[in-house]
Amino acid sequence: MQIKKNKLGLLKDHDVTDEKLYLNRRQFVSKAALLATGIALPSVASAVPVIEAPEPKYTDLLTSPFSATEELTKYQSIVSYNNFYEFGVGKQDPAKNTTQFPDKSEPWRVVIDGECDSPGEYDLDDLMKPLSLEERIYRLRCVEGWSMVIPWVGFSLADLLKQAKPNSKAKYVEFNTLYNPQQMPGQQSTVLQWPYVEGLRIDEAMNPLSFIATGLYGNDLLGQNGAPLRLVVPWKYGFKSIKSITQVRFVEKQPKSSWMIATPSEYGFYSNVNPDVSHPRWSQSRERRIGEFLKRKTELFNGYKEQVSHLYTGMDLKKHF
Ligand SMILES: Nc1nc2c(c(=O)[nH]1)N[C@H]1C(S)=C(S)[C@@H](COP(=O)(O)O)O[C@H]1N2
Ligand SMILES: [Mo]
What we know:
By secondary structure, the chain is of the alpha+beta class. It has a single domain, classed as Sulfite Oxidase, Chain A, domain 2 (Alpha-Beta Complex). Helix content is 17%, strand content 20%. The longest helix has 19 residues, at 19-37.
């Protein structure tokens, strides 16, 4: 996807995504780690097959006033250009390596526990029974400088959390991805600390924008997008939107996310999209919308300022990055 800018005098350096920068994000570690452990992930040479958008399975989805009205990113891009390090660090690795994931022969279990009055372990079906599915069209902005517009299917995170009745000590919510190095070969490497952990402050988690996706484009999620359920926090960088969740825990102290542990100088707890707070190694002022040629300006809170800026009143966003 490198663009030859010399052919088109119009383009400036900052108009095109510099893949070299973000490809470097953890690749220097991961390549070495993968080699050292001798893990056999398919080579990047094999192409991702065309994945046809399936017929919509959910036709009576509720619509949301929070939905964006921009052009949707193509289905093929959403399911073949991914970050899911449990399945490799290349953008196409998750699509290639999740054909058997999740294992459909076993029900997906989710534990909800910690500081709450009604903890429990649920089959996903039971967990979803009281909830009605809706469609939410959200922008997704990756910290690497690309973005998409995705029509998610799912429900408000708050609706799920309220069922567990969090108590007054529940100041934060911690989320864990499945830990299963057999099913997730990337977990045999030390590229990140496993399981993948993320967290939100309780008021961020209860904000109406915070969403649990179980599908996209009117159908169920595929493995590469974090099936069977993943978080979507559209005003934060994409890595906060943790995939394939097995544990939700109410906690008193701020959780340490996998990215904070990996590179504390580069990834903070809040990770709100902010064009004025640079990543230490690149600017965040612009982004490439996948499918578009020129970069566009990145918006504060990814364009969701009206809904979320009150959460950060009085906070120095440069300090709490
Ligand atoms: N468990 C887990 N969740 C994850 C990641 C990951 O590597 N592991 N990558 C994150 C990053 S960096 C991004 S940008 C989004 C990408 O979501 P998508 O592939 O569905 O677009 O997932 C996030 N969730
Ligand atoms: Mo990302």
